[in-house]
Each structure stands twice: as C-alpha cells, then as structure tokens.
Design a protein that fits this description.
With about 200 residues, this protein is an alpha+beta fold. The chain is built from four helices and 13 strands. The strands form two sheets. Strands 1, 4, 5, 6, 7, 8, 9 and 10 form an eight-stranded antiparallel β-sheet that branches. A five-stranded antiparallel β-sheet has the order 11-2-3-12-13, covered by helices on one side. Strand 8 (about 105-115) and strand 9 form a beta hairpin. Helix 3 (about 145-155) runs antiparallel to helix 4.
C-alpha cells in the first residue's frame, strides 16, 4: 500500500421502512484507499430485535458497536426487559455527540418497532449524532446514487419483500458504478416486530 490512508472504509448502507418491517442492507467490501482488501466485512448488525447499519471508517463504527452492545446488555439485564428502538437510537446519538470535537467517521441507521407509536422506525444518524426519522435512507460514499433510485421506486405501501428487492437492486447499481462499493456480497437485515434476522446475499459484480 504505497499511499497513506486513514484506515479501512465501508462504502454504504441503505434502509427502507414498510408497514411490515424495515430492511437494512450494506456492502461487505472493505476498501483501503483504492484497493479492496476484503469482501467479508460487516456493515449490518443485529441486537435482539433491533437492526443497526453503518458506513464509513471501519475502526470507528466497530468501536461504536462494541460500546453500544455492552450498554444494551447492561441495561437489558438491569431493567429486565429489552430497550426500545427510541432508547437505542438516542443512546447512539449521545455516543457520537460525545466525540464531536474529534468525530467518529461513520454514518449509522437504526431500525426497529416502536410499541408506543405502534409503528416501525428508521433513524439515521450523522457522525456527530444528529437524528433523522426517515421512511428510506442511504448513508455513505455513494449515497447520492442510491438516493436517486430510492426516491424513484419507494412507495409507502411496499411489502417487506418488495423493499428487500429494492435494497438489493440499489446496492447492485451502486456496486457497478462505485469503485469503493464493488463487491459480490451484501449484508441484509430483515427487522420485524418481534425479531431481526441477518443474512448474506450474493449480488455478483
């Protein structure tokens, strides 16, 4: 590696909310400069029935995930219940905001079911902890390309299966055009009311 780069990067994650659940998807390719050094990275995580998606500096978001998982387990066993999607999103916001002077170079998405509002939620956070409540979102190096396709094809009455297909199609398009996102596989989380499942999907090149 002839050039100095500030660590490894994960290109993009997308989130799509439906009435049946939320889809989170992200590339598995990890790049260092202009070189793809791995196709087995992780950009999507699951904690109980909550889905988390990240893009950006790999070391930064891995550190955030470890701290968030630790705090989640502590409060889950202290309170004797799962934390709500709102609580996790706001705790993640505080973690990112605490580093605002030297911010974590990562964007995040948090997906789950809110029992108080009786609705699914998709929260998107920037590197200093700002929270946006969205129906669909893309975050990362190729977000402009991804948002254009999401804007064109998203519908509020989409089924979960349609949202899954749209998420895969978005990452296929991005991977074909963006050198940083190119990869054969993606992580995909399907978040419903009671559970969140993580799978790997092959999309080719």
């Amino acid at each position: 590696m002839s050039e100095a780069w500030p660590g490894a990067w994960q290109s993009i994650c997308v989130g799509i909310k439906t009435r049946e659940g939320v889809i989170l998807a992200g590339t598995k390719a990890v790049t260092y400069g202009y070189m793809r050094i791995s196709q087995s990275g992780r950009s999507i995580f699951v904690i109980d029935n909550i889905g988390l998606g990240f893009s950006g500096h790999v070391a930064d978001y891995q550190s955030v995930v470890r701290e968030l998982e630790l705090e989640y387990r502590y409060w889950k066993y202290t309170l004797g219940r799962r934390l709500t999607i709102r609580a996790i999103a706001h705790r993640l916001s505080l973690l990112l905001w605490a580093w605002k002077i030297f911010p974590m170079l990562t964007f995040a998405a948090v997906a789950g079911y809110d029992p108080l509002e009786r609705d699914f939620k998709l929260y998107v956070l920037d590197p200093v902890g700002s929270i946006l409540d969205e129906n669909y979102a893309a975050a990362g190096l190729s977000e402009e390309m991804a948002l254009g396709l999401l804007e064109d094809r998203y519908r509020e009455d989409m089924t979960l299966e349609e949202a899954k297909k749209l998420a895969v199609d978005v990452l296929k398009v991005v991977s074909r055009r963006d050198v940083f996102a190119t990869g054969r596989w993606i992580d995909l989380a399907i978040v419903t009311k009671d559970k969140a499942e993580l799978t790997t999907v092959e999309i080719g090149f």
